[in-house]
Amino acid sequence: MMCKHLDVQEKIAQEVREVTGLNNNSSADEVAANLTEEALNKMQYLHAALNETLRLYPTVSMNARICFSDDTWLDGDSVKKGQLVIYQPYSMGRMKFIWGDDAEEFRPERWIDENGNFQEEIPFKFLAFNASPGICL
């Protein structure tokens, strides 16, 4: 996605330079030495761009779960114990009623709040990791 959106690629490169103190002439070894966990945690726009990529291109395009007990969902639909519920993160990442009219656009800024900080989405809205990293295990 970054190659298709050079403006996003440049914003990420600028953020990396700002956070690490590196410049365009830095060697690969210098970049590797300065890309610490602390530095990565400061890269808000990079995080947003990665989440936006996973929203549009999740690692699992379709998934299923078996219902372990009878339940009624918020919309009034009910499922019975043993029923298979299938959902599609790929399609859900493009639904306008979930993400807005620009749902099909690659726009990392949707993940950035008014202060320029990365903003998490509701876990069951952003399904790249199901509800969270590790819940799929």
UniProtKB/TrEMBL annotation:
Keywords: Heme, Iron, Metal-binding, Monooxygenase, Oxidoreductase. Gene3D superfamilies: Cytochrome P450. It holds the Pfam family p450. Its EC number is 1.14.14.145. It comes from the Eukaryota. It is an enzyme of class 1 (oxidoreductase). Its cofactor is heme. GO terms for molecular function: abieta-7,13-dien-18-ol hydroxylase activity; heme binding; iron ion binding. Belongs to the cytochrome P450 family. This is Putative abieta-7,13-dien-18-ol hydroxylase. It comes from Rosa chinensis.
